[in-house]
Amino acid sequence: MVLFSILSASAGASSLLRLSPIDLFIIVIYFFVVLAIGFYLKKFAGTGEDFFLAGRKMTAWIAGLSFISANLSSLETMGWSAMAYQYGMLGAHAYLIGAIPAILFLAVVMMPFYYISRTHSVPGYLQMRYGEGARSVAGISFSFMTVAVSGASMFAMAKILNLLLGWDMNVSIWVASITVAIYVTLGGLLSAVFNEVLQFFLIWLGSLLIPILGLIDAGGWNNLMATIQKNVAVIHPTVQNADFTSLWRNLGSFASNPMGIDWFGMIFGFGIAVGFGYWCTDFLQVQRVIVAKDLRSAQNGTLIGAALKMLVPLIVTIPGLLGLAVLFNPDGSTMVLVPESDPRAGITHHTFNDVLPLLMGQYLGPGLLGLGVTAMIAGFMSGMAGNVSAFATVWTYDVYKPLLNKKATDRHYLAMGRWSSVIGILISILTAYSLFYFSNILEYLQVLVFFFIVPLFGTVILGMLWKRATPAGGFWGFLIAILFSISMWAYVHTFPDGYKPQPKATLAPGAVVSMETMEQGGSEALSLIVVESGRVDLVNVPVPGFDPGQAVTVKDAPVALPVTVPMKNVDTPVQILAPEVVMADSREKHQFGVEGVLVYLKPGVEVHSTLISKRFAPAAFNPDHAKVIARSEKAKPMAVNMYSGWWSLVVCVLITVMVSLFTKPKSDAELKNLVMGLTPRPKEAPCPWYQKPVFWASVVALALIAVNLLFW
Amino acid sequence: MESHYEKQIPIWFFIGGIVLVYGLLILAAGLFHWLSPPPADARVRLWDLHADIWWGVLLLILGSFYVIKYRPRKKIAEL
To answer: I need a labelling partner for A288 at 20 to 30 A (CA). Which of A22, A538, A627, A684 fits?
Structure first.
């Protein structure tokens, strides 16, 4: 009941929703159950193999559900719902071309190498195949990435619980972190896997009602598609001619889809580089299936994951699409969500990432809302737990053991695993707030993926399929590709001529204003804003007499702010943001955000003027540089990331091959059980055709083709 | 399907238990709001479909199935 009191007490008055006692009770039950599971499983995690690899005794179903749940965190569901809102049906490719071919490849081609080599981790495979150099690079970069993603999960959870329920962000972060720390520290991977399977059920049972009710509300699928295409002119005016409702027919050119990508970038960038990198070599994923009880279970578990993955668009992509059609403002107009980087975000507009919670609030009543929020919390905590348990394994086995303490006992490494779980969570908390630099939660993840995971895939796959790849080739190919990835990222955020944010006038809280409206298209629109008193902060709005960097008070006569400012030969409208102003006539508090409206500042108003011009802006993409990487100036951030992934894979393969041709390879004896042609499959008991991995891989591949044709 | 450790209580039992309890709570909340409807401006969209009632029943059935099928047997309790 302590948790119940904390959650009740931390609820703020400004939240979108208020949970009823039954909702809070449902959430508290979840925390109780996961902690109980952690304490129960402690006795089964007595050795290093138990703690880090769950005793290598998973059945195919548990391995498969865990495999897919580790990727079904709320970061994923919220992020890809936001992507569907931003990019339309193309968002579903995260579950189709961006995932299924890679998972099938993992199950059929790569799993035998992982499994037969008896590695405990992907960096562990690199050590056996290439030596310590490649393992150290992978171990250190993976450790960094896992805690960063875990931090992203924490931040997202705290933010959404704050938005939805008004919970204090610190309370959310610490309650969730302590719970995860307890159950992962006690039960290790076994505990993380149990909770992932539990989360799988909760997330489906808590989320599936949203698309069901949403589709009823929208009048069915065809009506939904028609409404979306009508609404995008209002919601996404810059890409209003793009097709939001198809998977492939809009990929013929960069301009015909909202992502600014073509079929080549989608297949080779998303499908091959990012998809294969993430699903085949991200240890968080692979760890779930290499701990299965035998090779066939590992392969079938992976295929179960692939089949389930194709269903996820039901609870992720469809809600994102519903957001384009069934969300309305109180006055009945279509609700417009904006990116996190938009100055109006959080003041007058919700963001892309809020689409799923907004739909939850719209459709789920008491009890169901508690289940929906529990599913969301479970997803976040599961995401944290998965990353932390993977971090503990890689840190202990691939960094601490080979580099710092080679000859300790199993008991010592077990203790190190438990401590590193706690430390991993603490580091995650520190990384949580860096997300403000990115316009979308998932783009943050994408950036990390193409920094580390894509080069890792290039290195691992060459190691598995080409026995001529040498230790020096693997090391240099991997390292240079990582550096190349980071360089591409820095390049697209660099502005040689200076990046100037859109001109903006922010009316400080408490400023007194009066406004005039005029009828426009059947509704009232602001036509004039008069600031009577208070302070106004100007960014990139040049006004004669207001020197940048100085506070100036308007004297004698009112001053008019420019409605537009020329930037790169384009007249850019000035944004006017008023998060909390006071109306001059009624003295009531008010907030608004508009652009391109005439503003008068009356005598006595204090003005702070700033001119901002940056050479490096992580929140903005330089279209001239993005064009070099993504082949089009229309490329959106996601398209740039896809192409960046592709180029880093190309660089990794080229460098590895070139260096390998001039350096000495390992002998066949050293490569036994690691490389194609030198890895005999273990003898397994005969099984009927319907249990063979190849059969199920074919079924999933046919289903993938059918889905793509259906929504072509 | 069996647990990956024979001595362990299967994960499916934990899942069944929590889904069963959630089903009961959501069904109870749905019935309460059906019999004592909230004011019109406090209702969620499509309130008249009473999704909480049929979803609660669904959870109840699913949870009961897992609890009954995977309940700890005497053999396990002795270990």
So the answer is: A684
Per-residue pLDDT reduced to its tens digit, A668-697 = 888 888 888 777 777 777 778 877 888 889
Alpha-carbon dihedral sign for residues A201, A274, A100, A56 = negative
Residue A498 burial by CB count (10 A; 0-12/13-18/19+): exposed, middle or buried?
exposed
Burial code (b: 16+ CB inside 10 Å, e: under 16) for A532-556 equals bbbbbbbbbbebeebeeeeeeebee
Above 0.95 for ipTM, yes or no? Answer: no
Count how many residues are written for chain A. Answer: 712
Tell me the per-residue pLDDT of A62-82, one tens digit each, with 9 for 90 and over. 888 888 887 777 777 888 898
What's the rounded Cα separation, in Å, for the pair A664 and A657?
12
Hey, what domains does chain A have and what are their CATH numbers? 2-331+339-400 (1.20.1730.10), 504-612 (no CATH)
Whole-number percent of chain A with pLDDT over 90: 16
Number of alpha carbons in the 13 Å side-chain half-sphere of residue B15? 25
Check CB contact under 8 Å for A365 and B45. no
Distance, CA of A617 to CA of A143 (rounded, Å): 26
Q: What is the mean pLDDT of chain A?
A: 83
| Helix spans in A166-220 (H) | 169-207, 209-218
Put simply, the answer to whether A367 touches B28 (Cβ < 8 Å) is: yes
Four-point Cα dihedral A221, A227, A229, A233, nearest 10: -160
A100: enclosing H helix or E strand: helix A100-105
Report how far residue A251's alpha carbon sits from residue A87's, in angstroms, rounded to the nearest whole number. Answer: 12
Contacts of A21 (CB under 8 A, 6+ apart): none
